[in-house]
Amino acid sequence: MHAYDVFFLLFRSLYIALFRYIFYIATRSCYRAALEYSKLLLLLDPQSDPLAILLAVDFFAIAAEDYEFLLNLYAEWNPSRSLHLLPNFAFSIPLVHWMQRFRPRRRAQPRSELSAEEINLMLQDALIMFPGFLPRLMKHTHVGGTNNLDKSLLFGKEVLLSESEALGRLLDVYVSQCHYYWQEPDVLAWLEVNVEAVLRLVEPVIIPGSSTSACPNVEPDPRLRMYSEKRKSCYLQAPRNVLRYLFLRELPEAPLLLPPNHGSQKIYPLDPFPPLDSINSYDPEAERHRQPAGSGGFFHALFSSLWPSTSTTDDNEDIADIHALIAELGLHMEEVQTIGEQPTQIADTEDAGPPNNLEFGGEFD
Questions:
Q1: What are the GO cellular component annotations (predicted)?
Q2: Which SS3 state, helix, strand or coil, does residue 345 take?
Q3: Across-strand partners of 8?
Q4: pTM exceeding 0.70
Q5: Which helix (H) or strand (E) covers residue 221, if one does?
Q6: Rounded distance, CA 169 to CA 238, Å?
Q7: ∠ CA(138), CA(28), CA(65), 5° rounding?
């Protein structure tokens, strides 16, 4: 079990305090500090990422112009964590490569090793995988060559048919955070070129000599169907860490989602959507049921009381260590377990009469 496991109530307060502080300093444009604190929050529990801070790491890295960190993180974690399935990484990675290659920055950045064509292909792949990005971005800016987007096969029909509510929230979060960087004129021109390339790949085209005005593309890109099926199967519902992120961020463009069967249960601002097997070490009754009976005797109970959230998964090893310590002291376990169990001598009160009742002769003022 992790040293700062989110299953324990007292540790969740630390996570939430860090999360709120990160976005507080981000509102003050302290993006470098926000990025460093995001790294800290992520390292507390990198496996489960209980507050889904990965949804904001790319935003802070771009704002702080720390492109190399974001690319290294993606290269290290994508094979095992499938970061390419998160819309923010799917779009931010080609954006960062493009910025490294074509835009000089204040901070010295290594030039992207990818060619311009490879960067374009990455962006086109992201547009086909997440077509809902473009309609959301167009609420903030105009993208040339995208008139009548509702009639588009990819950016209209596919968004309605294959985009789940959970995926829609991920796109809402990304666009609300990063739309500023996609609105810059040079980035917008690059995006328009790739949108036109995607439309040529997947949209119906007019075939010369045909009696119909529009026919299916002669060789439609196979990703159109493949990614549609992937969107339907991979984003059925949002995990609890994403629900916590939505609740704590309170973004107007990304409203809160509720887990299935939530009903009318309360959502506590200081502990939103706790784990289903949450451990409340402040509840003595729950802690007593969680501890196995007779595990370690007096000293084990003493050490557990000093740190009530100690994990019980390694109890056997802990008991063995306690036994070894007692053996070094020259004691036997049977002797130690009798400590604190000696009967207390109580004075014989059989002959003593009942206490005298106090009689108040006067009245209370």
A1: RQC complex
A2: coil
A3: 279
A4: yes
A5: none
A6: 9
A7: 65
Confidence label for 289 from pLDDT (cuts 50, 70 and 90)? low
How far apart (Å, rounded) are the C-alpha atoms in residues 165 and 14?
A: 30
Q: Are 61 and 69 in contact (CB under 8 A)?
A: yes
- Per the DSSP assignment, residues forming a β-bridge with 271 are 268
The pLDDT tens digits of the residues spanning 221-267 come to 889 889 999 999 999 888 889 999 999 999 999 888 887 776 677 77
The full length of the chain comes to 365
Residue 116, both tokens: 């311009």
**Tokens encoding 99:** 């910025």
Model pLDDT, residue 219: 72
Residue 356: what pLDDT? 44
- Distance CA(302)–CA(280), nearest Å, equals 19
Contact 267, 247 (CB under 8 A): yes
DSSP designation for 338:
T
| Distances from the Cα of 76 to the Cα of 56, 79, 254, angstroms | 18, 7, 29
**End-to-end CA separation in angstroms for the chain:** 64
Each as own residue / partner, the long-range contacts of residues 71-74 (CB below 8 Å, 24 or more positions apart, any chain) are 71/96, 71/97
Three-state DSSP state, 214: coil
